[in-house]
Amino acid sequence: MNSLNVDQRYQFDKWHKMQDFAPVDTVELKARILESLAFAKTLTSREYTIWRTWQQVNAEFDPNNPSDMRRIRRVKRKIFKATGPEDIETIEPELVLVQQQFPVPRVSIWGSERIAFMSNPDSLAADWEILRHFVSTMEHGGNVGRSVRFLVRDKLSKKYLGAICVAGDFGQLNPRDDAIGWME
């Protein structure tokens, strides 16, 4: 099912003709996929999860980049560290909303409405990203749709107690379902 009107299709075709797409070597691609699957089969599910997290951390942070290391150390200093069992009685947890992006309504030249997302330079958003890499072994690829992120911190000391992401899944996503041919 094609959702583009005639004008949109014309613009897409015009753009597409100007693109220089690199050819895909399907033999090499298949070999790389099989190699990756064979490697994954040698690991337990726990080892695989930690390995994927390790890959994600290494892709995001360069240990030879002083700026990356400063950011990580800065967040590490902000993590609450109990000095004894009685410390639990002194903390006042609070949820702090962290928005890495915010929605901006847009209208295309064809009149179709959409939501664009602009980046938020909020340092808490950057801290949330660093925490999620280092306090969870679960790989995080983001999520499609809405999500709300919070830092949990002590109200008095402003030290971090945790990071939370509340998100909804897309059980039904009409454009995707129509493209695949799924019915209700």
Give a summary of the structure in a few sentences.
By secondary structure, this protein is an alpha+beta fold.
Description:
The chain has 184 residues and is of the alpha+beta class. Helix content is 42%, strand content 20%. The chain contains 6 helices and 5 strands, in the order ααααβββαββα. The strands form 2 sheets. It has a 3-stranded antiparallel sheet, with helices on one face. A two-stranded antiparallel ribbon has the order 2-3. A hairpin with a 5-residue loop joins strand 2 and strand 3. The model has no long low-confidence stretch (mean pLDDT 84).
| DSSP summary: helix tally | 6
Rg result: 22 Å
Number of domains: 1
What structural category characterises the helix and strand content?
A: alpha+beta
Q: Oligomer, anyone?
A: single chain
- Tell me the fraction of residues in β-strands, as a range: 15-25%
How far apart are the termini? 16 Å
Q: Uncertain regions: pLDDT < 50 for 5+ in a row?
A: none
- Let me know the average pLDDT: 84
Key words describing this protein structure:
184 residues, alpha+beta, 3-stranded antiparallel beta sheet
Q: How would you summarize the topology of this molecule?
A:
Layout: H1 6-18, H2 26-41, H3 45-60, H4 66-77, E1 93-98, E2 101-107, E3 113-119, H5 123-135, E4 147-154, E5 160-167, H6 174-180
Antiparallel strand pairs: 1-4, 2-3, 4-5
